[in-house]
Amino acid sequence: MNLSKQKSKRVLYMIEKRVHEKYDEELEREKSLLEQASNMQTAFSIISAALFMLLPVLLQYTYGTISLQYYFVAVSVIVAFLLLSLVFATLAQWREMKDVLPDVKTMMNDIENKLDRLVDDESIWFSDSFRLYETMQQSLAKLNKKRCALICASMICFFAALFACFLSYLIGVALFLPGGGKSV
């Protein structure tokens, strides 16, 4: 084997390593995004439980001072944002179809059809492998980009719910103070 052929082979192996690293990186990103979506669902559960545990206590101690309509509106706004957050987080976890390696039989048939050329020129094998990984990586990257957007939407809705909690708390305190928030 001459020197240039050895160098070419080494370069092809280095490229193959990078291709595998990029695909593995995209798989890790998918795993991380799925975990983040799961964490958003957990956050939804905790805030919802806290809200509905706190609501009866608030109603008991502020009955007659703050109207039930205020509580209804405040809780409705908070719950609407929380539910939107849950929906976006759940959609982010949806397992959509993505390009994957072909089954073994298909790969074996492909190798048998190209066997003579593969023996003579290894670069054909690398080229086919690179194209296959490129297709799989691009499919996964597209799916991960969509998941990322859904998680961002979930987080925005979640923070909007927290802001609505804070705002309704401030308004509730103002209504609960002597004078009921009315100017004197």
Q: Helicity range of the residues? A: over 70%
Helix run count:
4
Distance between the termini: 97 Å
Strand content: under 5%
Helix-strand sequence: HHHH
Offer a few descriptive terms.
mainly alpha
Question: How would you explain this protein's 3D organization?
Answer:
- The chain has helices at residues 3-62, 68-92, 104-120, 122-176.
- By secondary structure, it is mostly helical.
- Helix 1 (3-62) packs antiparallel against helix 2 (68-92), helix 2 packs antiparallel against helix 4 and helix 3 crosses helix 4.
- The longest helix has 60 residues, at 3-62.
- The model has no long low-confidence stretch (mean pLDDT 85).
Layout of strands and helices, then pairs:
Elements: H1 3-62, H2 68-92, H3 104-120, H4 122-176
Could you give a quick summary of the protein structure above?
Helices cover 85% and strands 0% of the residues.
